From TrEMBL:
Residues 10-355 form the FAD-binding domain. PANTHER family: FAD-BINDING DOMAIN-CONTAINING PROTEIN (PTHR46972:SF2), MONOOXYGENASE ASQM-RELATED (PTHR46972). GO terms for molecular function: FAD binding. It comes from the Eukaryota. Pfam families: FAD_binding_3. InterPro entries: FAD-bd, FAD/NAD-bd_sf. This is FAD-binding domain-containing protein.
Amino acid sequence: MSINEKIKDLNILIIGAGPAGLSLARLLQQEKGCKNVIVVERDVDRNTRIGGSSLDLHESTGLRFIKRANLFEDFKNICRPEGESITIANKDGKVILRKPHLKINSKKPEIDRGDLRRLLIDSLLPDTILWNHHFISLEEQPLDGTTIVTFKNGTSIKADLVIGADGANSKIRPYVNDISLKYSGITLIEFEIENPKQVCPEIYDLVDNGLFYALSDEKGFIVQLKGDGNLIIYLSCKRDENWIKESGFDFKKKEFKEIKEFIKNNVLSDWSDIYKNLLDNAVEPFITRPLYSIPFEPMIEWKSKSNITLIGDSAHTIVPYAGKGINEGMADSCDLIDCLFEVDNEEKEFNLHKRLNKYESLMHQRILEAGNDSNDAKEIVHDNNACNLLVDRFLGSYKYIKSLIPFYTYFINSLTDSFGYSI
């Protein structure tokens, strides 16, 4: 029996219907023809609201998967190349950089998380995903090498290969390694604004369909326009891990108006009113998100000891400031597929565990670079000189002509509108 046939015969269980898990399922089914693939997800159904900002897919990771999975044409219909525009301002509202998107060179198109999830779900065979399956435990069977996974709804599934794709707070990770996430030093306060063009037109114009940074004093706003027309806003603060608790101000027990006043008085006291206006127009709720990451100094490399491995945030939780997380999870799916189906003429007997370890080694090499880049971006955003450092990061040697960039971009875009363009 060939390697392909042996793997196609495996019962493969993916725990978690996030981008990484769904990407892996797509490649197993569409590219390799695997029929025994199950994705389990604790959400009740596919209509569960997906929160968070939109994300850009990177050419060497996320877009590489999209093209390999034959989803590029569908992706183009729902992505937003204009989401690449960037504006940077300080706490007084002074604009430091305005960088409109360049249509002809769109390499990181934006897509809402919900749209991406729907694209991936719709690409799978019917009944691939089992909803309302909340993981409880797993038990390895030494006699036949399988694993029995049990769920809160009373069901259990027997699998030859288990992939944990259940996010940063992974329940599968402890079965694979003993890594504990480390607090990054940053806490986010997340909220949204409806009808931003009417209620905060100045910020809406600065966002320009893309990303707006307002940075000073080791904190800042990161603002983005979603596909539904809302603004999603992250107030990113360098704070102790238990900042909210130790402040004596429990967000869950306070009125929404009280929370707004607390943030304005304790975090943004000397910031321009245009930013305080964002809080005034916020819709409930405020969500606090302390950010955690796997350790990178040094990075701990691990190898699974059984037929269980990890992909996505389960394997490598990193901070979000370079937009690498979901992209790297999609790259994991490509690397894992390549290692599983690699032809090894020296392999006398099919060794699944050896193939998983090769994937893990490749993943660690890639994630070390992505994690360090993400941590560097985090430090820049929360530096006292954040605006200038971020301009350096985005423009490099072109920073000296930053004032000319909007005029150049608008001119090139007018030409591409006349002659057409594509991502």
